[in-house]
Every structure is written in C-alpha cells, then in structure tokens.
Amino acid sequence: YFIYDLLGSEVFTDDGDKLGVLSEILTTAANDVYVVKTENNNEVLLPAIKDCILDVDVDSKKITVHLMDGLL
How far apart are CA 55 and CA 19, in angstroms? Predict the structure, then answer.
C-alpha cells in the first residue's frame, strides 16, 4: 500500500479502543513512524514495525496497533 492509502485511517489499539486518526507518516532511515492525532488533539508517534502495527486494512481505513511500553 502507499502512504496516501493509509492517511486518514482510524487507529485502534489491540484492546479495541480508538486511539485516533493517522495524520502523517514520517520516513526515517530505520523505519517509518506513524503520527496519530488523538481526539484531544495530541499526537502519538508509533514506529511502523511488526511488534507495534498489528493489522492494516486499507479498504476499511482501519489500523490496529499494539501500544508498547513508553509510547504514551
């Protein structure tokens, strides 16, 4: 999938709680970083690694993530 396919996707934790909306993807040398805008207008930075990003459903615009210790 492409970056523009993911932008605007709703992001949920593996517990089923809505975290926010994917607003930006930062490209770094090691891995991409997903910027999630929460409902209270904060930003959460999530590394795009398999331990953190569990599922990406492009058709439904839904991403499921695991919040590792220290991410919030």
Answer: 14
